[in-house]
Amino acid sequence: MAAESPAPRLLVVDDDEGMLVLMAETLRAENFEVATAESAKAARAWLGRQTPDLMILDLKLRDGSGPGLVEGLQQDRAPVPFVVVTGQGDEKVAVQIMKQGALDYVMKDSALLDLLPTIVRRALAAVGQGRALVAAQTEHKRLEREILEVGERERHSIGADLHDGLGQQLTALEFLCASLKGDAAGHPQFAKQLDLMGQMLREAITQTRFLARGLVPVGSDHEALQIGLTELVDRVNTLGRVHCKFECKEPVAVADTFVAGHLYRIVQEAVNNAVKHSRAKTVTVRLATSDTELRLEISDDGAGLPKNPVKKAGLGLGVMQHRASVIGARLTIDSKRGEGVAITCRLPLKP
């Protein structure tokens, strides 16, 4: 038999002792657990020790106001869900405090005690829905990150197999061709074919290493992102289609390999877009940190983006936005036709 869930805990704050008792007794009769406070000071003291599921707050207190109490609490601690009790003529103040986060308000009149339980239940239902939504979003983020981590592990595994398996076999074949050239000294045509085979094997080895490096973008060292971006820029320059620069004035350490991998992929996608689509002559990658954020920028001097770039196949802007979102970063894209594109990724740094 499942255990019954505990009764919701309420804190009623009102400096009118008679009204405070009536509201508390009305709510206790509806099976709520109720604590009371006759002043803002007493409410703060109680909240310093415990956390209610909901607070019922009078707008006017002897030692302060309801809005003032809420503002102070929001600065000192996590927000407490609350509804307000207001007298006649204070409707504007009630609307104002709704903007501060109040879930509802009830007029202090003859119908107060009849309406209060219903309003409390409605507010508690809204609190429950909000918490369920936050929990679902948190779980979604966790699953999303887990799926991406599995994908990254698979890419690392394939990259390692390419480098250590296929790459090593191709290298062994190249050495074998070199050793056979001595036996082919008296056969010019055979020696020529061995030279051609050796050249083809070297090209295959280079392509295999490029593929492996693309699948395993960064290592586990804190400086791996910086090193990986340097190598990425060098590989782009070997193509000869654009001049790619990497600017990083001071060492940038990224301890989380998951974060570093996604930052690398964002740069890789942005640079590939510039090379393939922008007709740019120069692409610049900048990496820097401040006390509050890591900043990554990829800019080019190309043709700029079309009017609806996300709808254009192959641009991958949506993928970059998704990667930034997964690691908690913000991606912005600035483009003018004929003036190039600047993609900036800002990642807040934890203290």
Protein architecture, described:
- This protein is of the alpha/beta class and 351 residues long.
- The protein folds into 3 domains: 9-109, Rossmann fold, CATH 3.40.50; 140-216; 219-351, Heat Shock Protein 90.
- Helices cover 54% and strands 18% of the residues.
- The protein is built from 9 helices and 12 strands.
- A hairpin with a 3-residue loop joins β9 and β10.
- α7 packs parallel to α8 and α8 (257-277) runs antiparallel to α9 (317-326).
- The model has no long low-confidence stretch (mean pLDDT 81).
List keywords for this structure.
5-stranded parallel beta sheet; 18% strand; alpha/beta; 351 residues; single chain; Heat Shock Protein 90
Q: What order do the SSEs take from the amino end to the carboxyl end, as H and E?
A: EHEHEEEHEHEHHHEHEEHEE
Enumerate how many helices there are, as a single number. Answer: 9
Terminal CA distance? 46 Å
Largest sheet: 5 strands, parallel
Q: Architecture of the largest domain, CATH level 2?
A: 2-Layer Sandwich
Question: What helical percentage do the residues reach?
Answer: 40-55%
- Given helix and strand content, the structural type is alpha/beta
Number of strand elements: 12
What is the CATH top level name of the largest domain?
Alpha Beta
> Spatial order of the strands in the main sheet?
2-1-3-6-7
The outline comes out as elongated
